[in-house]
Every structure is written in C-alpha cells, then in structure tokens.
Write the structure tokens for this entry.
Amino acid sequence: MTIRPILIHPDPRLKKQCDPVAKITPEIETLAADMLATMYDAPGVGLAAPQLGVLKRIFVMDAQRDPDAERKPMVLINPEIDWESEEQNVYEEGCLSIPDQYAEVTRPSQVRFRWTGLDGAQHEQEFDGLWATCAQHELDHLDGVLFIDHISAMRRQMITRKMVKLKRERAREQA
Ligand code: ZN
C-alpha cells in the first residue's frame, strides 16, 4: 500500500467526468488499497480516485467516527444512486482536495447506493447520517463536482483564491 499525493483544487483533473471501471484488475485492487491508505493517513472519511489523478469511477469511505470502533473501509466501484429521500440534511463539509475549508451543504439525508465491490459482485446499501453525506460527496467527485460547487459563487471564489495561494506557497516550499 502506498500513500499517494492528493490533488489540491483548482486542478483540471478534479473537474472531469470519470470513466467506468470495466474490470477488476490487479491495478484496480492496488488503486483501492492505496486510496484507503491515503484516506486514513490524511485523515479523511472519504476519497475519490480523481483526487489522486486517476479518472476512474471508484471511491473509498469510512465514516465510522468512533475512534474505539473497528474500521469500516468500503470500496465502491461504478457507484450509482438508486433512491434518495425527500428529507434533506445540512452538513458542514470539507474535502481533502480543499484543505481546512468548510461549508454547509444540503443533500438528501438518506440514499440507497448500488455499486460493484472489489469481489466483482453487485452491492446495494442504504446510507444515512455522515455515511450518506460522504457517499454523495464522493460520487460528485466522479462527475467533476466539488462541495464548493453547491455553495454561493462568492464563497466558492473566496475559497478558490485561498487554494491558489496555498498551492503557490507549497510549490515555493518544495523549490
Ligand atoms: Zn472531496
């Protein structure tokens, strides 16, 4: 397992529609393991392949917040939403590609997802709470959508300017 660098917004690869995974190959298995390692290391509750520069429809998540509980790593390949509740939920979201920036986003509070697992089988599960927020946030990534695309243009531009500055500072540190 390798911890890979996470792309920081703005980056054209974070705005792309990702391609479906045609087959569970050893490369996909390695990618999934690296994504989980990178997510836990960050630490974060979710990570999508495009955040590592891989434009494929796969994301990982573990929204288990109790530090004493066992880890619940999930790998969702070619995920789709089957059903979403009319009831909405507001959650203060963040993103590993937009460090230290948070904003309230409204999304359906319950969703049913369908996806292919690393075992090649079809899975279906209903999520609520942080799991539902996280799954929808990660699915957005596979369509080139970031949580800041759900907030006001003014706030989005402010956050983007901060990220441009952060990337410039990091580039200077590495030089
Ligand atoms: Zn994100």
